[in-house]
Amino acid sequence: MRVSINDIRDMKRKGQRIPMITAYDYPTAKLADEAGIPFILVGDSLGQVVLGYESTVRVTMEDMLHHIKAVMRGAQRALVVADMPFMSYQTDIPTAMRNAGRMLQEGGAGAVKLEGGEHMAETVRRIVECGIPVMGHIGLTPQSVHQLGGYKVQGKTLKAAAKLIRDAQALEEAGAFSIVLESVPASLSRIITDKLAIPTIGIGAGLHCDGQVQVLHDMLGIFTDFVPKHAKRYANVAEVFKTAMTQYLKEVQEGAFPTAKESFTMDEAVLAELNAGERRVASD
Ligand code: KIV
Predict the structure, then answer these.
(1) Does the beta carbon of 44 lie inside 6 Å of ligand 1?
(2) Which domain holds residue 269?
(3) Residue 128 and residue 171: Cα distance in Å, rounded?
């Protein structure tokens, strides 16, 4: 049975830490699902790690839907959350509701995630009222990178920390079922996590969040342009890839691939007839 938002909320209640990972396509979603990850995010981080953009700002609804559909084909058990891309929910509430609905209706996702605190609370409330589960995202909100002036840790001053606490509480009151805390001091995430009944999922927010999320391409070492401080490399897939490609290149160039093992045979009699026919054509 697929993991539900109630299961995710229950994990906090039972003191179970919640692992979440991003996935963007069929094979990565299938592997994460088979590994037992209960919570998958189709993050708009795909703009950077899959599509090669500088930021998430250029990701569109169509980009997201394309990837969400692939993830849904791969993940049979995990709860899949679809990121709402930049400008798909900020302009007005009816647009936000329509686009959130598309994520479930067309994409097949189980929930949506959007960035912003108090100022997004009414939008969250209205989307939840439509029956669409919403995950909040506060702290460093990458879609506002131009406004924030870069990818900086948030909530370091008294005023900023108090604002983040208010943001988290406003999202919970609006009906969000969980909240991502990104690039927030660990001690502040602890305060926020203790104040909320819904789970906090941290990325660069320390150990005291109820769960953790990592960008798949960072943790597997597939994305090599830079490694964010909050990312831990659990594998070096880029190195494995490079070794395999170099070997393949060499074997094709040297005629060592394919061997008989990777080739197909045909009936000898058919081949003899074919060769005889070829000889006749050549002699005509
Ligand atoms: O897009 C994404 O991958 C995210 C995570 C960093 C939380 O929003």
Answers:
(1) yes
(2) 240-283
(3) 11
